[in-house]
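Question thread 4412

I'm putting together a teaching handout and wanted feedback from people who do this every day. The idea is simple: show students a protein as raw sequence, then show them the structure tokens that encode its fold, then repeat with a second protein so they can compare. Below is the first pair exactly as I plan to print it.
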Amino acid sequence: MSTHVDAELVNMMSAVFAAHRERYEPGHGLDELWGQLSELGLVRLTGSEESGGSGAGWPEAAELLRAAAWHGVSAPLAEHDLLACWLLETAVLPVDDSRRTTCVLDDGSARGVPWASAAERLVIVWHDGASYRVDDVPADSVSINSGENGAGEPRDEVRVDTAGLTGTPVPDNVIRQWHLRAALVRAIQVCAVLDRILESSVAHAIERTQFGRPLAKFQAVQNLVADIAAEAALARAATDGALAEALRSDWGSPNLEFLVAVARSCAGHAASVVVRNAHQVHGAIGTTREHRLHEFTKPALSWRSEYGSVQHWDDKLTDFATAAGAEGLWALTTATADRQ
């Protein structure tokens, strides 16, 4: 499957988010943004045309996520389209225009559910002891305790009485794919803000003078920026590789979980280096509320811990390496690269 996206579409996406950010402060204007994106066919970008979607694919959706993250705009784009509505379509359940997110229950509750308090309906996932079930319920029919992540986005606690739900059974592999999709979404978003942080750091180093010359002329600053660029590039390459394999195999590759783990591990560790170095490059001004750096460093640190912490994905890689053994490790790390 081609990953090429029309340049005019990418530019249009960027323009929408840039205009929104000029009009609203972070965390405001979601309803207005959602209405505009809906009119442009971007809210359900990957939904089938038969169900009211735009019929696009993951390459377009990834560009939409990158554009939003690049401009510091938060919205449940992935949670609605790539996760909740995809799950409904997969379960052959109806989809309407309501804003959605997904809630995966553990003993009737879930913590840190993205955008639950801003959703109109929740796609509930639970295991009844025999199989996973999926149901689509109004948000006001469940208990939601509002919370937020370090970037100020809704991350809520949800409690549901599943005894009152019937649900539609779905195979285990559907939920496995849901988890991989969710994990890859966050890797894409982290990479986007790391790239934006790199741009900001380069611009600041060139424009800011110290002792009569630009910061970019100091070797220590050059080293900091070089490390930012290297870490961001590594995270982006790993994430692009995982997405390419997902699209090539229609999410069926036996190597996909390993590649997603690589992407999440690289992105997670890169976020630590990039955020630390960027704040050193920007100095005191980078810690102020007026400077936009925090609009990208906070999401980087928050998103890397969602849908699996950095430690979780590092442990996954350790498990893969241990299972492969000394003789199988090279084949594990090169199998996908040989196909690309």
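The second pair follows. I'd like the answer to focus on this one:
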Amino acid sequence: MKGMHYLLAVATLAVAASVVSAYDPSPLQDFCVAIDDPKNAWLNIPGNTMNPVGSNVTTVNVGTLPGLNTLGISLVRIDYAPYGQNPPHTHPRASEILVVVEGTLYVGFVTSNQADGKNLLFTKILNKGDVFVFPIGLIHFQLNIGKTPAVAFAGLSSQNPGVITIANAVFGATPPINADLLARAFRLDKNIVLDLQKQFWSSN
């Protein structure tokens, strides 16, 4: 009898584990009637690309457009100066589909750690009208390889996808991550790490 209870408990845990999800939960309602007016949720205005990375991301998520609440989607407009980039970053809660509206972009993502210890890089050059998908949680980037400005739009599978810009998070954390740890992790001289930590790391 004890064996039967044990098997029942294991089966119950297996079923429970199979339905656990890190994605947005299923909505509790069909839609949300937003009371507040949208805040900066306009994608017809080019963003200011006069910054160190040469790009600007205009985000329309639940924070700027409350009507997205429970819908599990958001949208961004990305403007790129000539040779501007959207540096390596990740969205912890969403996959992303990007379409180029103007210009030519070099885009890519890196796989998570493989069994053989390698991380594979997948890249593509996109022209106007081309589409590319970045899987949830993976580090990805875009680079304008043209001499003229570029524009892209991206849809994300979360109302609040989050973004972690890798260099900003690693070298711009407050308080700073221990420099000895970073020097060893990145195989850099500690003075280089200290210099990187003194830089102004800003979000685009």
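Top answer:
Good format. For the second protein you could add a caption like this: The longest helix spans residues 2-19. The chain has a mean pLDDT of 88.
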